[in-house]
Write a structure and sequence with these properties.
Layout (H helix, E strand, L loop, with lengths): L2 E4 L2 E4 H11 L7 H38 L8 H10 L19 H4 L3 E7 L3 H8 L3 E3 H6 L14 H18 L12 E5 L2 E6 L2 E3 L7 E6 L4 E8 L2 E7 L13 E7 L3 E5 L9 H16 L3 E6 L2 E6 L4 E5 L4 E4 L4 E5 L6 E6 L5 E3 H19 L8 E5 L5 H18 L6 E7 L2 H5 L1 H7 L4 E6 L1 H11 L16 H16 L7 E4 L8 H7 L2 H4 L4 E4 L2 H13 L2 H8 L7 H4 L12 H25 L4 E4 L5 E4 L1 H16 L5 H19 L24 H11 L10 H14 L1
Parallel strand pairs: 3-12, 3-24, 12-17, 17-20, 20-21, 21-22, 22-23, 23-24
Antiparallel strand pairs: 1-2, 2-18, 4-11, 5-6, 6-7, 8-9, 8-15, 9-10, 10-11, 13-14, 15-16, 18-19, 25-26
Helix pairs in contact: 1-8, 2-10, 8-9, 9-10, 10-12, 13-21, 20-21, 20-22, 20-23, 20-24, 21-23, 22-23, 23-24
């Protein structure tokens, strides 16, 4: 790796060139000033960052030692809580407060809807996600299992009619007519400022006339009708020449529904970025999104085309005014957490730069281009989602970091907004105090069941074996955690100012199940929830039409609040008398997920993908799911539920199955790859298999149970061997 020496830093030459020749040009910043200020801040903050990581380990050791003591074997929750307070794991409560965040885009403050998460290192995925602000309801339903039956080849008219009927029934629920049904409409026109819907030549209207907001075309012959409900829009496309429109009584060819209101462009769990080359790829895509010029060439059905960012959408208001709506999702950037370092930059003490500090500087630098064109944020704000923070002290450090970045780059205080991912136990328990530390810049909190479960297991590792992974969703602590997050957010004044989010739907092919279950997220008071694809965003958006999140939040404010005692209910198995068959089945399920994900991470550098599970159901896997599975096996090993030989036997068995699942995966043949390399052909020399085993057998000693250190080490080993 080639380095450039600058301001007591050794900077990867590719990164240095990117900053100087791509990121800075067009901004009122000189390269010399950037590197001078950057070097000063990095060397000031890196030791603090390191001390915070060391404090995590100190606290964890105290908890481990407490559980090991004979007098604590009979667990007493009151005694446990007092202990956690004595080591400052639970911090002192202070007076109530409300957040003061200003200059927040409406996509954050007042629009409730789906939120996509997409890896930044894949330009095509990033563009698709940014453009997922609007989606075809007909396409989303026709192509998924929400509508029963097979699609078959070509156009299936019977299936299309089922889709049309489904959508019309949905419209009857959210845009009800004075009389009749949307299924009966034969013509649509506009008279004055009213939307007129003809049923058997009789005029009909939407019950709430305010829901009609605009159109395109002529009033007597519109080709587009814009409706609005719960701050979300639906564009009804009227086209008698279209294959669908010509057979429709009202010539309606599609319903384009506002879908992914916001998108998290991810540098963290869904990305495998281990060196300067990888990081520049990530930063370059983010820069393209912020400049608005990101493009990628694609081929579909034998045709080549260029994918770029969608323009805004223009309409005529019903009063004749001009309406312009965002054509793209509001983009947030998930930086990495405090733990990891990266060899992209070497400090004067020869240590690697804390990656989170580097991300904060460079992602903000790139975002400053948007401060000029305001194509993403209309308020000149930049939104950083910060993961894996442990407690208020680490959140306070993030606030200091952002202040230093703002000052170094010459931007207004609190231009950088922050989202706190509530996915570590010490943050959950002290969530209110975490929010207090960033009360002038916070815009987001969420729950992340997967990482949070991983930390739950690691924190209480020594108390005993954990329950089965599938039972976690029914555990007392989890229900309390989900409610606690919403309760705290509302208490701190988030409603109408900031997002309260819920976690990912992990089965992209199971859209019917998603439609049945995920309506629970807006009902829980969450004004955004994660989805795995643009199609899922389009479908999930229907839930936010059916449920007014802000009304739900008002109801929730008066409910009984979640209790700390329930939050600290440890998911330990009381009497683990499981059969060998049950144990092996759980081990195989965990091992399958670990190996299926890790082999792609190590061999391809893919940080998130749809991985077949033990039943060949595709699941969206990232490092969070890996953390759970590896910590679960490590915990059982530690407490003698299984043996090392038993686990190794399972790992080899499941590696063979994963190899079989992957052998024809086209992803392994793209970009000049020679194909899939089987782990089972040479277990002893397979870096991927070695990585998967280390995550399990060394899982007990990994910091907070995180998977990144081992993955990064093994990925660098793989890259160097190529």
């Amino acid at each position: 790796m080639n380095y450039i020496n600058k301001n007591d830093l050794k900077i990867n030459s590719t990164l240095f060139e990117f900053i100087n020749k791509e990121a800075i040009p067009g901004l009122d910043i000189k390269s010399e000033d950037f590197w001078k200020n950057f070097g000063k801040v990095v060397h000031e903050l890196a030791p603090i960052n390191k001390s915070l990581i060391e404090k995590r380990e100190t606290i964890q050791k105290k908890i481990d030692d407490w559980h090991k003591k004979d007098e604590n074997k009979d667990f007493n929750k009151e005694k446990y809580i007092n202990f956690l307070k004595s080591i400052s794991y639970i911090v002192e409560k202070k007076e109530d407060f409300k957040i003061n965040t200003s200059d927040v885009d409406k996509e954050i403050s007042s629009i409730a809807g789906p939120q996509l998460v997409v890896p930044v290192d894949n330009a095509r995925y990033a563009l698709n996600a940014a453009n997922a602000r609007w989606g075809s309801l007909y396409d989303a339903l026709y192509g998924t299992d929400v509508i029963p039956g097979e699609k078959g080849k070509g156009h299936n008219k019977e299936r299309a009619n089922k889709v049309i009927s489904y959508v019309r029934e949905f419209l009857d629920q959210v845009f009800p007519l004075n009389n009749g049904s949307w299924k009966e409409i034969s013509k649509i026109q506009i008279e004055g400022s009213d939307l007129v819907l003809l049923i058997e030549e009789k005029k009909n209207y939407i019950k709430d006339k305010k829901q009609f907001v605009g159109f395109n075309g002529e009033k007597t012959k519109p080709h587009s009708i814009l409706l609005k409900n719960n701050n979300l829009h639906i564009d009804i496309i009227i086209d008698p020449k279209n294959m669908i429109g010509k057979d429709d009584k009202a010539n309606i060819s599609d319903f384009i529904i506002e879908s992914a209101i916001s998108t998290i462009i991810d540098n963290e769990d869904s990305v495998a970025a281990v060196d300067g080359e990888d990081k520049v790829k990530c930063y370059r895509n983010w820069l393209g999104l912020m400049k608005g010029d990101l493009k990628t060439s694609m081929e579909k059905n034998g045709k080549k085309f260029v994918r770029k960012l969608n323009p805004d959408r223009n309409y005529i208001g019903k009063d004749g005014s001009k309406i312009q709506l965002h054509g793209r999702a509001l983009l947030l950037n998930r930086n990495v957490g405090h733990l990891m370092t990266n060899p992209s930059i070497i400090l004067k003490d020869e240590s690697e730069i804390p990656e989170g500090i580097m991300d904060a500087f460079i992602s903000t630098l790139c975002a400053m281009h948007d401060f000029k064109n305001k194509k993403n944020s209309r308020t000149k704000s930049f939104y950083i989602v910060k993961p894996k923070m442990h407690g208020p002290e680490e959140v306070a450090f993030t606030n200091i970091l952002f202040e230093k970045v703002e000052d170094a780059l010459g931007i207004k205080r609190f231009s950088i907004k922050v989202g706190i991912m509530d996915e570590e136990r010490r943050t959950t328990i002290n969530l209110k105090e975490c929010i207090r530390e960033v009360k002038d810049r916070i815009v987001f909190i969420n729950t992340g069941f997967l990482d949070r479960t991983g930390d739950e297991m690691h924190t209480s590792f020594e108390i005993g074996p954990m329950i089965f992974k599938g039972e976690m969703k029914k555990s007392t602590w989890l229900n309390s955690y989900e409610n606690w997050n919403v309760d705290i957010g509302l208490d701190c004044g988030f409603s109408g100012k900031a997002q309260i989010g819920k976690g990912m739907w992990a089965m992209p092919d199971k859209m019917k199940d998603m439609m049945d279950q995920k309506i629970g997220h807006p009902k829980s008071g969450a004004n955004c929830a994660w989805v795995p694809s643009p199609t899922a965003a389009t479908l999930h958006s229907m839930h936010y039409h059916k449920v007014s999140v802000f009304n739900e939040q008002e109801k929730i404010k008066s409910r009984k609040k979640a209790k700390l005692e329930d939050l600290l209910e440890i998911p330990k198995a009381d009497r683990p008398n499981w059969s060998v068959e049950d144990i092996n089945r759980e081990l195989e399920n965990n091992a399958q997920g670990i190996l299926g994900y890790v082999v792609r991470w190590i061999d391809q550098g893919v940080g998130c993908s749809k991985v077949p599970d033990i039943n060949n159901i595709g699941l969206m896997e990232d490092r969070a799911t890996l953390r759970i599975s590896s910590q679960h096996i490590a915990n059982w090993l530690h407490h003698g539920i299984c043996t090392k030989d038993q686990v190794m036997k399972v790992m080899k068995k499941m590696a063979t199955i994963v190899d079989k699942q992957n052998e024809k995966d086209p992803a392994y043949f793209r970009s000049g790859r020679s194909g899939y390399t089987k782990m089972s052909d040479d277990f002893d020399n397979s870096i991927a298999f070695s990585a998967a085993c280390d995550l399990v057998f060394k899982g007990r000693v990994q910091p907070s149970g995180y998977t990144e250190p081992l993955l990064h080490q093994k990925r660098l080993e793989k890259k160097s061997s190529a």
